[in-house]
Amino acid sequence: MADYRDHYAEIRPAGADVLAVSVDPPIKSEALRRELRLPFPILCDTEWRVAKDWGIYNPNERGGIAKPAVFVIDRDRTVQYSKIDDVATRVPASEIVRILRGAGRREAQLKVYIPRVSDFFRAIRNMIRS
Amino acid sequence: MASGKMPVAGEVAPDFDLTDSTQTPRRLSDLVSRDCLVLLFYRGAW
């Protein structure tokens, strides 16, 4: 969440807004929002309605929670990107910024990794060192 | 309620109404006012 706060200044000019959702009650969410100084709202899915509807409900943990997930949707609510995290890893905000800027979006759809020139030189450097 | 399937790229995500942390009612479709909306589902501290 703090990662997305820190990248908010890049996300906004890329034409997007941010919204957080959890199953926490409002009082807890508001405390977190203030503590982390989040510039975006937190919605409270206290009855797991959305988590269930969106297929990310996890009933096996702490009486039912939403699995950590990131979605990018457009105006028509068409999903441009979705990633669920079953492990503790998070999609870094920088990756979302890249997707929003378009280059990453095409990459994600094609599932092709195109190395950058800098990656190429780094690989060569590592080869020489080893 | 039966659990839905996670919407993937190209599919339309279900709309919803929820209150935010300040108890203000919010509707997802009203919140997508810009080109894109990034939705972060997090575990929560509950």
What this model shows, in words?
The complex is a heterodimer of chains A (130) and B (46). Chain A is α+β, with helices and mostly antiparallel strands. Chain A has helices at residues 2-6, 8-11, 26-35, 49-53, 93-100, 103-110, 117-129, and strands at residues 16-22, 42-44, 57-58, 65-66, 69-74, 79-84. Chain A is 41% helix and 20% strand. In chain A, helix 5 (93-100) packs across helix 6 (103-110). The model of chain B has no long low-confidence stretch (mean pLDDT 89). Helices cover 9% and strands 28% of the residues of chain B. Chain B has a two-stranded antiparallel ribbon with strand order 1-2. Chains A and B meet through strand 1, helix 3, strand 2, helix 4 and strand 4 of A and strand 1, helix 1 and strand 3 of B.
What secondary-structure arrangement, pairings included, does this model have?
The complex is a heterodimer of chains A (130) and B (46).
Chain A: H1 2-6, H2 8-11, E1 16-22, H3 26-35, E2 42-44, H4 49-53, E3 57-58, E4 65-66, E5 69-74, E6 79-84, H5 93-100, H6 103-110, H7 117-129
Parallel strand pairs in A: 1-2
Antiparallel strand pairs in A: 3-4, 5-6
Chain B: E1 17-20, E2 25-27, H1 28-31, E3 36-41
Antiparallel strand pairs in B: 1-2
